[in-house]
Fold this protein.
Amino acid sequence: MGTTETPPRRASPENPLRIAVLISGGGSGLLALLKYQSEEIRCHKTVLVLSDKEDAGGLEHGRNKGITTKAIPLPPIGDKKEQRSAHEELVQKELENSQVEFVVLSGYMRIFTPWFVRIWKGRMVNIHPSLLPHFPGAHPHRDVISSGVSTTGCTVHLVDEGVDTGPIIAQREVPVLTGDNEFSLQERVKNLEHELYPETIDKYCLGKITL
Ligand code: GRF
């Protein structure tokens, strides 16, 4: 871990780490994490679900569990830079209000500014559906198929100022099969993500992963 990163507090089942999950869409990853957290006593619990999209299907998963769940759409500000900063300030306010200690990006489709990244460095993770550093960006499955590689997978990494570039915490592989399309590949990788992400968050929060 670099010197600018603050690792999460060493959590325990008696004093679990307070997690916020940020989503933009269907939230199948959020649902998998909530299931994982409800199966056994864990060292982390989800206290806040945020989405940048008001119609994100995944918001239901937070509401169904009685977790504070909010959509924070982009505020109506014409200047894009100001709008982005104002939006992140709103997100940060919600994180502070819920005394969040650790941020989990789960299909959150926005890139944070260096201001926000600095606040959470070492305490914000993302999952990307490829074997980084290969196939970063918004269309990894399409890129995997058109490249002809025979193996893909998913990567859990700390978030830094780049796009899908932060220190890698965990990866898992899955084969690309003959006849795969973007959809079939996405489903296979998502099933893998739903195992890897909760397990990795668990280990990281318990201090079992050192970078
Ligand atoms: C996941 O594949 C995640 O890795 C990617 O977006 C997808 C989100 O899916 N960044 P869901 O909203 O959790 O169903």
